[in-house]
UniProtKB/TrEMBL annotation:
<feature type="transmembrane region" description="Helical">
    <location>
        <begin position="305"/>
        <end position="321"/>
    </location>
</feature>
<dbReference type="InterPro" id="IPR051533">
    <property type="entry name" value="WaaL-like"/>
</dbReference>
<feature type="transmembrane region" description="Helical">
    <location>
        <begin position="613"/>
        <end position="631"/>
    </location>
</feature>
<feature type="region of interest" description="Disordered">
    <location>
        <begin position="367"/>
        <end position="388"/>
    </location>
</feature>
<feature type="transmembrane region" description="Helical">
    <location>
        <begin position="281"/>
        <end position="299"/>
    </location>
</feature>
<feature type="transmembrane region" description="Helical">
    <location>
        <begin position="637"/>
        <end position="656"/>
    </location>
</feature>
<feature type="transmembrane region" description="Helical">
    <location>
        <begin position="164"/>
        <end position="181"/>
    </location>
</feature>
<feature type="transmembrane region" description="Helical">
    <location>
        <begin position="328"/>
        <end position="347"/>
    </location>
</feature>
<feature type="region of interest" description="Disordered">
    <location>
        <begin position="1"/>
        <end position="27"/>
    </location>
</feature>
<feature type="transmembrane region" description="Helical">
    <location>
        <begin position="188"/>
        <end position="209"/>
    </location>
</feature>
<keyword id="KW-0812">Transmembrane</keyword>
<feature type="transmembrane region" description="Helical">
    <location>
        <begin position="126"/>
        <end position="144"/>
    </location>
</feature>
<keyword id="KW-1133">Transmembrane helix</keyword>
<feature type="transmembrane region" description="Helical">
    <location>
        <begin position="92"/>
        <end position="114"/>
    </location>
</feature>
<keyword id="KW-0472">Membrane</keyword>
<feature type="transmembrane region" description="Helical">
    <location>
        <begin position="51"/>
        <end position="72"/>
    </location>
</feature>
<protein>
    <submittedName>
        <fullName>Uncharacterized protein</fullName>
    </submittedName>
</protein>
Amino acid sequence: MANKNKQGSKAAESKHATKPQLSKKTDATGRKSDYLFSMSMAPRIDEEMHWFQTLPAAFFTAFVIMLVRMHQYHRPMNQFFWTNSGNNLTEFFSYYKMVAIVICAVLALVFILYRVFTQSFFIKRTLYYIPMLVYSIFVLISYVMSDYKEFALWGWNDRFEGTVTLLAYMVMLFFIMNTINNEKNIKWIVYPAAVSSLLLSLLGLSQALGHDFFQTTFGKKLITSSQFWDQLDSLTFTFTHREIYQTVYNINYVSFYLTLLIPLFGLLFIHSVVKEKEEPLWKKILWGVLFGLNMYNLIGSKSSGGFLGMAVVVLVALILLNKTIIKWWKPLAILLVITVLVGGVTYERWVPELTGAARSVLGINNSKTQEVPGKPDSTDTAQTESASKGHIDYLETKGNKIMMSYNGNPITFTTYPENPLAVKLTDKDGKALDIAPLEGTNFYTIADDRYRSFAIGPAQDTAGINYFIVKVDGSEWDFAMLRGQDIQYRNTLGKFVPLKKVESFGWEKNQGFGSGRGYIWSRTLPMMKSTALIGHGADTYCIYFPNDDYIGKYNANWDNINLIVDKPHNMYMGAWIGTGGISVLALLALWIIYILQSIKVFWKRNLNSFTEYTGVGIFLGICGFLVSALVDDSTVSVMPMFYGLLGTGIAINIMLQRQNTEHKAH
């Protein structure tokens, strides 16, 4: 409906009908317009948008997550000391999702442009645009200021969540908020999500039962081009023990996005049951089956982050819905039975996961982390080895010296490149330490009880480079004495690296906290000081993480101390490093506004319609997701669904707030 001045003449209306205008008028109830801006042919705030205009939103929310396809690409990786993977890379799970996200955003802009040309463009009145704009500005500033623009623009390897992708999220959020106007539009988001969820859940079920679709010949051909079909036997993914990874690559991300869907499908099942004969039986069965399948996949993914999110969902639901839950005892009892049955079937999966998570949080045994392949198993032998190993406080190189501290006892090794067989050892007081030959070897021991687990000696490689070797508790540290250069550590990839003290904060006694997150977070927190305002560039976390912290990984009991940390396992920390602290505050403001608005809308509300149940389900899922984000990362696999449902949830809140206002007016 055109926003016209009702006191003006028809001629005046005709004269000004095609001019865009700020909506400052009031309607029949005396309220300010629901539009912040609208053009003459803008639809009513509750008027259904044509289904065709919802297609980018539906695909973005429901189907981007399903894309899997082989992609080969080139990246300048040889500049980094911690990788020898080369510059030519291959991945399956992220690139085409990123492409689809960008295409959806472009189509959304095309639809917005169409609305402008047809005088039907409008912007709903809401505060959400302020944090969205602030966030987008700092994403762009961080890109402009980045030292690694290629990575900042398109994102890190295997992730592809760079500046372009982050801005596409905001475009889609804006588009969805201003496209979903009534129940029919909502169903164009929810029903495709249900179809997608059903297919993904069945895929996850096949993986859990040891019949992974992507390991079949047809599945492999589907995700590769024909030129590689003669090499299909060599195509395997690194998943073991029937892990559920669906199409999101990392098992953590399965439970991460399922925290969005399980509450939604649970609420829609309750709605169908409560409506009794008004809802056909097949809908009750559909929502119940989807709830059960998603619960199975969440538990089967063996990721405690999803359990954490679902615990929050239950807690928020109890607070928000309180007495309403009693009225829902019948459908809730059915959902509880489904959950118990699924829990019983998957007993061997979730019990070890929760037990391991509890032990890592409490620091009982942190010798194993899920994110760190090759770590020792939680056996008595592993615990004994960990307990007998000393602690290397630091290890750094400077000039021709190697400075080290072991169990609080500093020691300095002074080498002489012109005489590789000579070495001088001194303690913290500058006192010279004697050495003695180790029988049967060319190594020497240190004649001091503080360093009795040490062995040192010279070596030379086939290229003629001389080394000074330090063995500590059976671990070998090789230092190259390069002519004309400072002495440097030779890592397991054969790269020469100068070592320095790495700043850390927290988790000193429990580096294995949260499956190794204690170590990662303790190194990430000091990094955040330099990006309190502007980040290093979207998705550049891996470049700036101290991957030369070999001592830290050694002390945290990582078997492979050269393992690359490419993400913080915390969505907020990752954003802080990539796009800056202000961008994170903007996101928090966006989400807090939604949470407060949802509480205001649904508090003590008598739920009745599909729209209301969907709104509550989305709100609970968003709450669970944001808590799970404390231990999971933003990724192109899960964020489209998050922002798609968030935009739908915001649109629902706007609709219901308007209904409340109209009801009060009457």
